[in-house]
Amino acid sequence: MRDSKTFIALSSLDVYELNRFKKFVNSPYFNVNRNIIRLFELFESFIRNKLDSDIVKEEIWQKIFPTKPYNDTSLRKLNSDFLKLIEQFLVQQQFDINPLHKANYLLKALSARKLEKLYKSSIASARRLSEQQLERTASYYYYQYQIEKNLFSLETEFEKKAKGKSDSILDNLSHIGDNLDIFYLTEKIRYYNTFISWRNVTSMEKEVFPIENITSEIVKLDYGAFPPLAIYYQIYLVYTFPNEESNFSKLKELLNNFLDIFPLSEASDIYQAALNYCVGKINKGNQNYLTELFELFKYGLESRILLKDESIDPAVFRNICFTSLRLKKFDWTEKFIKDYSSFLKEKHRENAVIFNTARLETYKKNFNRVIELLREVTFDDIFYELSSKAILIGAYYELDEFEVLNSFLSSFAALLRRNKKIPARRKNNYQKLIYFTRKLIRLTPRMKPEIQKLKNEIDESENFADKTWLLEKIAELQGNPLPATR
């Protein structure tokens, strides 16, 4: 029964949630079925004690119904009822997280029951909870709309028409419309931004909806007064007009001022939009954005946006190291590897540390140390395996170990031929690296026509692994050294 939806859902709860669910399942208000309590206790013992033994349906049945013969249909029904209770608990958890839910539904209940004597204190409570709400995403304005709508419903027809009440009623109606507009426009521009990012990687041509109507409404507003709308509109401007760099400067300012009002998952998406902009600029040759990218990575670490579930993605770890090394921040990179390797999941940690340390030593030109780190290591991750071999090619070349390098290139080529799991495009990239490196090591500074011919051939080739490094080595042969990028 480990693969049952019930056990999987229960296993997803942390210790504190499991404790709360224990109270929930034992509360007569939520559950009166003693058999569900017993099923929970059996599952709970497996989870808390981290037991690996099989959960046999017949044994579970025997412990719950010791005097009855096994009935699979009845057990599945009990399991289904238990799952519904878990789902109800998860809903309650989400409800409790947001105090505006409570304020809203209380006002709605008072309005439905026409409990006018209670509504003044409830109004005050709703206003107070609104001010206490730290997260101010688009949904915040939707809840404000709901609260204002419920407040309007609470006013009696007499009070709505009474002298002195008309101004407050008009204010109430105005707030209803304003909050609904902010919610609507924010969500529209947010999801249009998602469409733009998808379109950039999937070549979608069809528009999801006409954006001109949305942007024209946004610019009519003082949208800077509404942080989520301001941020998502600024991301739209950054995506749509990438050459207007003032848009990115404004986005950075908004992130510094308001990113903390978003829940972590949404803040991460917003932050990723800024990262993507910098990467796009770098890929188009604007190396000034390396510094911008580095500062964003630092911010992501300090704010813990990059630490999802207290762990860091190996690809993010690698990109941070690569960016800081390209800026020649060797001490910072070394400290980063030391301080943040513990945030890598254990199955990725050793590979990530060895690979990124080897890349650090490459930039520091400690090529013997690079070979020492990488020569005897077999990486589990194919990216690390292939990238480490590319780094080793550079190390052998820099040490003039051309005989060893020739042999290494042959073994690398054989690996690419044998391994069917390597994507064709990536395989082709590394095959080009091998092909051009073999030509490179046959050249000497005196062979100027041959050097230029090779340079032209590399220039005309589509982008591939370490193309920039090869061009650097050719520039050295020509007496025109370029800044190192490895």
Written overview of the protein:
This protein has 486 residues and is mainly α. It has 3 domains: 5-97; 99-262, no CATH class; 392-486, no CATH class. Helices cover 73% and strands 0% of the residues. Helix 17 (330-340) packs antiparallel against helix 18 (346-363), helix 18 runs antiparallel to helix 19 and helix 21 (402-418) runs antiparallel to helix 22. The chain is flat and about 95 Å long. The mean pLDDT is 88.
The average pLDDT value, as a whole number, equals 88
State the end-to-end distance: 51 Å
Structural class: mainly alpha
Instruction: Specify Rg, calculated over alpha carbons.
Output: 31 Å
How large a portion of the residues is in β-strands, by DSSP E?
A: under 5%
Helix content: over 70%
Mind summarizing the main beta sheet?
none
* Helix count from the secondary structure assignment: 24
State the low-pLDDT regions, or none.
none
The run of helices and strands is HHHHHHHHHHHHHHHHHHHHHHHH
The total domain count is: 3
Counting DSSP E segments of at least 2 residues, the number of strands comes to 0
Overall 3D geometry? flat
